[in-house]
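Need HTTM domain-containing protein's 3D structure for a figure. Predict it.
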Amino acid sequence: MALRPYFTRAAGAVRPALARRLSVDRRALVALRAALGALLLADLLLRARSLAFFYTDTGALPRSALVARYPLTANLSIHAVFGEVWWVALLFVAAGVAALALLFGYRTKAAAICSLLLLVSLHARNPLVLNGGDSLLRRTLLWSLFLPLGSGLALRDRGRCRHPAAVGLLLQPIVLYVVNAVIKLRGDAWPSGRAVRMVFSIESLTVGLGEQLAGYPNVLTGLGIAWVALLCCSPLLVLATGHFRTIVVIAFASAHAGMSITLGVGLFPLVSLAALLPYLPPAAWDSVERPWNVIARRARGVGTGVRACLIRAGRALSGTSRSPLRRVVAVGEQRTNRIVALVGDKGVLAAAKGAGRGLATALLIIVVVWNAAALGYVEAPSTEVVEISPEETRWDMFAPSPPTEDVWYVAVGTLDSGERVNVIHGGDPEMNRSDRQWGAYPSARWRKYLEVVRWSGDDELRRQFALGLCARWNATHSTHVESLTVRVLSQPTRPNATEPTQLSSARTFGC
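Structure prediction for HTTM domain-containing protein:
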């Protein structure tokens, strides 16, 4: 009993310190919601370039192959209900509408729920093209569902959000950083500083300023060591407060911004930048609130126009008052009003909030345990139960060591006219390696997918890749491909040395 006052006093001192570090400024949630909407739109636009190839039955992973490889995951995908282009395109449009609503803060909760459901469905349709950025985007959107995302674009509410989901939002990136640091330190390439030089010697990966930066090996060595040190310091994102926390956030933001202009890793750096927004302290938001709101007022007209377009589109789809769709909408509105009236009861609303906190807490525990399993500290669940192991979902980012080879694909198609063409890029297949287009991939999705094709050893997956290339070419050209020879070429990634190109494999498929 004599110790009780001391524990009470200690708890009273610790509680404000935890609240200060594990709560999120509500203005950060508005900015995060707008960033998520913009990222979802950008992701859809980038994926749309290979919509038929990656998400339809005429592409590289038809529904039959998806079910055979991922029987449980396939059931989560609305995109897999039909295999035609029109269905996937319709869902892309629906996801774009939800992302626009999320961006401008129109019916925010509904927009966030629809965005998450369609994003999970899209990811489940083709897990072979996913990367760490997809996982972080999906998880960040999930945590956001439990939080007050506000409406519109203006920053008004200066309060703090204290919720288990806010803790999850803050701990999720740190868990990824720490896991990545541990994996990197298990090898010798990153601690020695060689890793970044190896990464920038991969021509098919470097873009923009990365091509110039590759010529400065000493700079790359320093950047590699600094990045590992920064990853090890990632817990400071929550342990630090005030201006020191802002400095830590700026350090991580600078690193991700550098990745975006030097490496072709898709939207991952931009998703990481968005995930850093909740760490910014109130003082940082005080300084950006006024200029942000000026821009928000100017964008309000665009948001109003978008909202009007969405309403008109809904009316056009509904048609006349006698149309079946309008009757369905009317019934839906009646039931929604009943639910709103029910939720309006304080007891039910309190129960819903309590359930949300409980669910967010359970998810937080799962995240920690899952990532501990990814490092081997906890026994991982059987892949027969969940299909995907923790090791597959962890953020490796060239860890414990970057690739030792620069690999690219050459698909030489023989047309019905007898002509030979490069089926992936078009043009003459007899191109020199010195031409960067020869080793480039159409997108970061293609590189990720072809890594799986190469290392999985699945002959059926390789055959579907070849058939998908044939269908892709035949859909846009008058002369069709009769046969296709896929060559896998590689070159060792050794800085300051020119290594010969090697032919790893070559297989011919009939179209």
